[in-house]
Amino acid sequence: MTGQFKPHGHPGPHARDAVFSVPPYVGGESTLKGVNRVIKLSSNEGAFGPPPGAVEAIRAAACSAHRYPDGGSAALREAIGVRFGLDPARIVCGNGSDELITLLIQSYGGSGTELVMSAHGFLIYEIAAKLAGMTVRKATERDLVTDIDAMLAQVTPATRLVFLANPNNPTGTLVPHAEIARLRAGLPEDVLLVLDAAYAEYVERPDYDAGALLVDAGGNVVMTRTFSKMFGLGGARLGWAYAPAPVIDVLNRTRMPFNVSSLAAAAGIASLGEPGWIERCRDHNNRARAALTARLRACGITVHPSETNFILADLGSTTRAAAADAHLRTRGILVRNVAAYALPQCLRITIGTDEECDAVAEALAGFVRDHG
Ligand SMILES: *Cc1c(COP(=O)(O)O)cnc(C)c1O
């Protein structure tokens, strides 16, 4: 499909050239031909599905689905504020954090300006920036960890935004708070630093902060969060941003008036209140991630250390990664090919249930036995 409709290659209306500067985002696959029960470990969705209370809340909200939602998501912002100890007035909710990321890029970037991200950073930043007509500058990483000095070296007078997923997808690595503070201190005050903490709920390292400390410390830092990972609501589309008041104002001007559906808001509030959910998910993730990592390493596969609900397995070459991917597919297992992230030798594997982790570990062990 990509490239089929060149900017001026056909008669009729023409979209802006920038629209064709990036291939469309491809999400993790969810079906396999001829397989009834697919094991989907390709999109980092929570291992346990949506919290039961969230399912119940969506059911209850369905009865008033004819009513427009509260455009300001007041009750949801209040619940987020209570759960994370933040001022609800400095929170904006969105149709997934992707919406808020895109709005920040459209509002603060634009034609002739630049965005800085790391070499293996989250692809949505690049796609949204190029669509907005921006130039993307990528900083080299060190052992798949964002290198703060390399990021700062990419900043020019045209830089408007610096994006950092912390921990990062697809590498799974994080940058400690002190290093993030150093990044911010090195930026001109008119550059917006966006800390995308989609996996914050999984992190246990004491040297980590999801971003609220730096948002509170100054005027040019935003933290984005999502309900799509640990809270199991990827299909409901719900994310939020915590930011200084002027950035909140910009997001409220640019977002759609009813960007968060009443069903998503109800599910979000309920998931925040689900007793023991975060602890249960985190405990399982720690245990299952360690076990899967150990099993893959035992059969000679390099696994990068991860602070998230996925691991990055390095198969050593593009061909071996493709062969392993094909082998997993014959067993009904979908993982993520991360060639688009300049990591064609790697596969990203979501931490699923124990049963799913067993299946992928066994299948990869079989692959190594059969193919070397
Ligand atoms: C999954 C993910 C998101 C979440 O996107 P939503 O639009 O909230 O579903 C954002 N950033 C990163 C790095 C992610 O991996």
TrEMBL record:
In the record, N6-(pyridoxal phosphate)lysine modifications are located at 229
Domain of life, per lineage: Bacteria
- Keywords noted in UniProt: Amino-acid biosynthesis, Aminotransferase, Histidine biosynthesis, Pyridoxal phosphate, Transferase
Name the coenzymes or cofactors required: pyridoxal 5'-phosphate
Family the UniProt entry places it in: Belongs to the class-II pyridoxal-phosphate-dependent aminotransferase family. Histidinol-phosphate aminotransferase subfamily.
Q: What is this protein called?
A: Histidinol-phosphate aminotransferase
Q: Matching SUPFAM superfamilies, A to Z?
A: PLP-dependent transferases
Species in which this protein is naturally found: Acidiphilium iwatense
Which InterPro entries does the annotation name? Aminotransferase_I/II_large, HisP_aminotrans, HistidinolP_aminotransfase, PyrdxlP-dep_Trfase, PyrdxlP-dep_Trfase_major, PyrdxlP-dep_Trfase_small
